[in-house]
Structures are given as C-alpha cells and as structure tokens.
Amino acid sequence: MKFADLHLHTQFSDGTFTPEELVLHAQKGGLACIALTDHDTVEGCARTATACAAVKMEFIPGAELTAEHEDTEVHVLGYFLDTGNRHLLERIGQFQTGRQQRIHEMVAALNKLGVPLQVETVFAVANCKSPGRPHVARALVKEKLIGSLDEAFERYLKKGRPAWVPKTKMSALESVELIHQAGGLSVMAHPGLNRTDEIIPALVEAGLDGIECFHTKHSTVMSERYLEIAEAHHLLVTGGSDCHGYSKSKPLIGTVRLPYAHVEKLHAARQKLQANGLT
Ligand code: AMP
Ligand code: FE
Ligand code: FE
Ligand code: ZN
After folding, report:
1. What's the 9 CA to ligand 1 centre distance in angstroms?
2. Which residues are within 8 A (CB) of 219 and not within 5 positions of it... i.e. 6 or more apart?
3. Which of 44, 53, 244, 258 would staple 12 via disulfide (CB 3.0–4.6 Å)?
4. Ligand 1 atom showing the smallest separation from residue 132 Cα
5. Is residue 67 lining ligand 1, measured as CB closer than 6 Å?
6. What letter would DSSP give residue 207?
C-alpha cells in the first residue's frame, strides 16, 4: 500500500523543518507522496520539489490559505498550485505583509503589558515572509520571558488573550477562486478543528473540491462523519498530519496516512478542472 501526507509545514511558515529535513522525515515514514501546505505562502515548494525528486517521492505543491466566511475562520488548502501564478503571488503577498504588520501589533501589545520583547527578535526567529503567533511564542521562550510555547499561547496569544491580534483574512469564496485560477484544487482543512461544518454547503456552492477528513486532531468518529459529508457533496477526500516539525510536539509527519487511492482521485479531478478550462 502507498500512503500520502498532504498537510505539512516548513520554516517557510511556522514549521521548524527545512524542506530537505521534511523530505528526509517523509522518507523515514515510508511515504510515497507529500504536499507542502505552508500558511499563506508557496515559497518552500521549489526546494521541497527538488528534495522529493532526488529521492523519487511524489510532490504536490500547495498552501494553506487563511480565510473566513461570515466571521468563521476557515483554512483552505490549495493543491497542485502553479507556484509562479502572478495573481496568487500578488494576493498571498498582501497577506504576508498583513502577517508582518500583525507581529508589530502583537509585540506592541506585549510591551504595553510590560513584556520587553523586541520585534527584531521575532523576525529573526521567524526568518520568513509569513510569520505568525508561533514565532512570537518561540521568541518569548528564547528570551526567557515565558516558560513554554503553550504558556505563551495561554497567557498572551490565544484568541481573547491580551496580545491576540486578529489576522486579515481573505474571504473563503475568494480563496477557492484564487486556488482554481492558479490551477489548483481547493480543500477545506481540518473542519473538526475550526468547527466549520455549517459553512460547507456555501463553499461547495462556490466550487470547493474537497475536505480534509483525516487530520491529527480528528477522532475516528469525526473522520467517519466527514467521509459521509464528502460523499454527500461529491467532494474529494484528503488527509494529513499538519506536522510543524518540532514546534508543538514530536514530528507528526506520517502519523496520518492517506491511502494513495485518494491521491489518484485528486489527479483525476485536476485533469477534469484543466479540461474544463478553469485554469
Ligand atoms: P497564526 O496563523 O499566526 O494565527 O498562528 C496559528 C498557528 O499557531 C497554528 O497554525 C498553529 O501552528 C499554532 N497554534 C495555534 N494555537 C496554538 C496553541 N494553543 N499552542 C501552540 N501553537 C498553537
Ligand atoms: Fe501552523
Ligand atoms: Fe490550519
Ligand atoms: Zn496547517
């Protein structure tokens, strides 16, 4: 049996692995295919593709777009993206700028609370264009301003906590469209985590191609329910570990193993999309 892990992060967003390290771990985990889905960036795809090619592993270039629909945050995965697509790069570039601005705002909020964190420390820790809360948490730990990453989220960074700053998000409907025009398939990420069940029909209406039924944070019962929902809406089924390297736990890569038959269905759907001239 061949397996895939279609939800992975690197240092190009909030993961701790380089693309090369990611592929090494994928190999150790016996995976036949991986997708890179960094938050709001496709920057790591070129290096990951090269590293995969060197070990004859299948690679799917992707991204995890931060979106919202009627005040519900939803993460939309794009697969088979043309990573040179001008409109995609322009739009995600704007969200990367928003993320960088948000770091300034979070650090300002921390400073106001008497936490002497410097914005330069966060940007040095992040060293990428798509920084986020995990980088602020890591900088706080590095400077010994807090004991652990969890504590940083609990005390300051979680929604409703004093240094939480909302992200600028694109509309979920735009994210589906943006992915399609870049030649990709759109998939709702971890619906069980974001509690986005109610908005599935609206996104299907907008052209959503699939849902991530298998995810680290989905129980077996949850996965089964999403498989039923996928079937009812004629959606593709994906799955992945959402590995962030050594960020939150030990590396999760390969702990969610998507049977390769689902990847074959993704290939077929992509071909259909291209034949329909949507790209
Ligand atoms: P951001 O995109 O900046 O809002 O950060 C979201 C990222 O933070 C998620 O993708 C996770 O990697 C991480 N994260 C969210 N909540 C927590 C938490 N309670 N503890 C540790 N990491 C978290
Ligand atoms: Fe993340
Ligand atoms: Fe996510
Ligand atoms: Zn993710």
Report:
1. 12
2. 192
3. 44
4. 3
5. no
6. T
